[in-house]
Amino acid sequence: MNKNDDTKTRLIESAGEIFAQHGFRSATIREICRRAGTNVSSVNYHFRDKDGLYASVLESLHQSAVRKYPPDLGLKEGATAEEKLRAFIRSFLLRILDEGFPAWHGKLMALEISDPTGALDQLVQNSIRPMHEHLSGIVLALLQEYDLLDEKNSNMTFLCAMSIVGQCLHHFTGRQIIAAL
Q: Could you tell me how far CA 47 lies from the centroid of its own chain?
């Protein structure tokens, strides 16, 4: 890794922690650079501005999670729709609940979803929409396989996919309550 890549990586890691701790609006470039051990001009050099740094943090977070837990978890060609759904759910749960990832990963994603910034559109386009389309394809295959498609409800695939995501997210957002039960 060259010096520029090392600086960029340190900025992304430091920024992720600080954005998760303070939120995008309250985090300062000065604090991020201090923690990364670099100067303020390095943010301009690598990311143009705070918004560019934040978008890079979200993209990096998503890429590292998907690298560690791909949506198909390495299923072999020809897997059934049920196997694909099982792998997708397991992968999604592992990504959001993995204690091995830095603690700020989940917190930052939750902050972005609950208090969106200008980076949300890019996050949806590059990360969330492709995952949604992948899941929707699996759900559609299952609905067709079991002859459950309803012409009266054209949103059935979408609603089923959102229900699956919601049930998974419940384990993230409600983890303290679940642990107390």
A: 20
